[in-house]
Amino acid sequence: MTIAQLRTSLVALAFGATSLLAQTEAPSTTLQKKTYDQNGRKVTERTLTTVVKETEHEAETPTVAIFVANRAGKAGDSELGALEDYITGRVTDLGVKVISGETALNAVSGMAPNGKATDLDAQMAQSTSAVRLAQTLGATHLLQVTISGFDSNKKTIDAYGVTTVNDERTARVTYKILDGVTGASLAADTVKVSKTVQNTPDMADERSSLLNGLLEEAAQKVATSLKRQIDRGRLASTSAAQSTVTVTITTELADLYIPDVRISPENTLAISESKFKVSALAATVEIDGIAVGTAPGPIQAKAGLHKLRVVREGFKPWERTVNLSNGQKLNVPLEMTEAGYARWQDATAFVNGLKNGAKLTDAEVKVLEGKAKMLEQSGFKVDTKEGIHITNKSLF
After folding, report:
1. Reported confidence tier of residue 120, pLDDT bands at 50, 70, 90
2. What residue ranges define each of the domains in the chain, with the CATH number in brackets?
3. CB-based contacts of 38: which residues, under 8 Å, 6+ apart?
């Protein structure tokens, strides 16, 4: 589809019609005892009372992002704006608060700041992009409305010397509701509206506004169908799936290692053929453009798809779309810039001058340990896994 065929209009909607849910507490039972004399006899009455408490609270109302598209050819391209207005108006009648389309479009541009206008079609066709959009707007669901067809069925009738052409125009509009967390389809329906126009050979009425009128009627049917889906609970709250999760992020330098240098109790250097991985400390972690913490370490975010970005001076930014879940562990490979690599070479130059088997004085050992400490303080950590089958002391 071209941009003319898919004019994305995004509107975030917060359903204002709330329902009350009753939460029942565990019943409590009390015993009351009463003793008295009756006709010279002692009578004891015991009364058991069970109390059940129900607490009413407002159910969390869904927030929906909607957009419209055209798959009915050129006939529907010029009517997408009208369909957006009709859908927005009809859904608003259900008790919906509408956030301006401009706000939603700004959210889309934020997802692809360097994208072209024609890139929007492909982006919205991807479920991951749609879910990210919903989360950017704070929406729990997405509602997609599409003009799926606009047909003409002509029948010619000759009666009493008059030729009449009955032209039946039919428009079909499809909508589907997607879960804003997973992108899964929760409900879908297609509505159809028709109108017959009579023409004669001497009088032809193209009715250029006919599709517009059909779409207005279709918008009413979409709103009616949507209301039915809401009443059935098809838009159940996804708040549980959107709960806050903890994700642990670690970093390592891509294709960058440092030799295993060990110092024996007799101050003898041993340079092993094994290599240690190096990780970058204090890298900034961004979720959907907002800094939320540093890596390595745990961060908290809403469950689901997010744009994850890890940045640190001297390294190229690392960016991916990830599906965050509780307890997840992500290892991010960072690649140095040319300037960052030059600083790394300066910080590790002392290793290149070491000789295997060299005998060091206590002062020289202290100097080497100080340089290794400076390397760590410059923002790097050497993964030595100290304490596992190690007999000699590692320099790092």
Report:
1. very low
2. 11-16+59-231 (3.40.50.10610), 244-394 (2.60.40.1120)
3. none
